[in-house]
Write a structure and sequence with these properties.
single chain; 228 residues; eight-stranded mixed β-sheet; 7 helices
Length: 228
Amino acid sequence: MQKPWFLRQVMLSLILMLAVALTSTNASAAASSHYDQGRLFAEANATLDELLTGGDPADHIRNALSQAHGLLIFTDSGAETGSEGWQGLLFGRDAGGSWTGPAVFSVTSGSFGPPPTDRVGRVMLIALTAVERLIAERIRLGGSGLSVARLGPGPLPQADIVAVTTAAEANEDPQQTFAGTVLAPDQYATNVLYGEPITIREAVASTADIGDDVVNLRRRLDAESGAP
């Protein structure tokens, strides 16, 4: 005897709910295995150390930071594993120009350079567009997405984002190199960072004291960009 139609629908709904719950649990476990807060902040500071040391190039970066609406700092904290190794921090700015945030982001498709993956070890993406455009489910670089240009001497490029990298080939065009690369907020890691559920928008705008790693990195960005 066949089960009544409504019973079959109820059973199907329960099965779907269970599948979603299991998927969410597995996703959180996977995210946990790739998130190392101490290493992420240490690598972010190392990126600033490397890119903001010495001469005119560093001054150009500081000038761009002084005019930026947001900043993404990415490092190859596990490049051997593919795109999953690229994690970063997105910072915003408040009305007074002080840096806020961050939220944790990951590369979900593509990469920051052609093979071998160690050609690009550190990346700063300085947002000249409104940071609100970066607070999205997915950020696509190049092509039909946000425009990207390399930061060089002279006036700032007319682009949504200017890129500073440790690419082996200084003449590589990031609009081509990064084309198709997709970044996405890591909600799980961001929640872990703040110790509670928080939206990506709230995280990027946050001025909360959630530990020395965060506060010291904000203060360093303030100093490097001439923020009050």
